[in-house]
Amino acid sequence: MKLNNNWVLGLMETNIRFNISLNSVQRKTPYNKYFIASQFIEYTPIFTLTLNSCDLKILYSIKKIFHCGFISKTSYKSQLKISNINHIYSYVLPFFEKNHLLSKKRIDFEKFRKIILILSNANNNDNIVDYNKLNKLTYDLIKSNIELDLELLKNTIDIR
């Protein structure tokens, strides 16, 4: 199935998420002859597109556009998920830089993009990371996703 990028973009306006997963990781690093356990925060970027389970063919076509990703399916929804930072950097970012989102998702994309660039530079060049900036962007993006979840919840149930 061949899809038009503008049609795909319109579909994504309400069905995508740009998110960051934070995980605490303990690593042992050598110090003289002893190993010292250190706590690290691991940042995992996650791009997801969620559709109704009957739209599985559309998800596979979109996966071809991105050249990567994993598709999962439940009885009521299908989801394309991309969490490899190199794939996000190489395929997801260029797609949205070329095809601009028009809704609030554009702001989320910009935050996500800045986070990916910071993490990519840190991984590739052993650069010093501005953790204050990284943490602020991550916090803002996660907060935006929580606000979206609350809005969806309000629209789904009658809150009195």
From TrEMBL:
UniProt keyword list: Endonuclease, Hydrolase, Mitochondrion, Nuclease
Q: Which gene encodes it?
A: orf160a
PANTHER family, per database record: INTRON-ENCODED ENDONUCLEASE AI3-RELATED
A GO molecular-function annotation: endonuclease activity
Lineage of source species:
Eukaryota, Viridiplantae, Chlorophyta, core chlorophytes, Trebouxiophyceae
Instruction: Tell me which species this is from.
Output: Helicosporidium sp. subsp. Simulium jonesii
Report what the protein is called. Putative LAGLIDADG homing endonuclease
Q: Does the keyword Ribosomal protein apply?
A: no
* UniProt GO cellular component terms: mitochondrion
Instruction: Specify whether Mitochondrion is a keyword of the entry.
Output: yes
Q: Which superkingdom heads the taxonomic lineage of this protein's source? A: Eukaryota
- Residue span, Homing endonuclease LAGLIDADG domain: 10-116
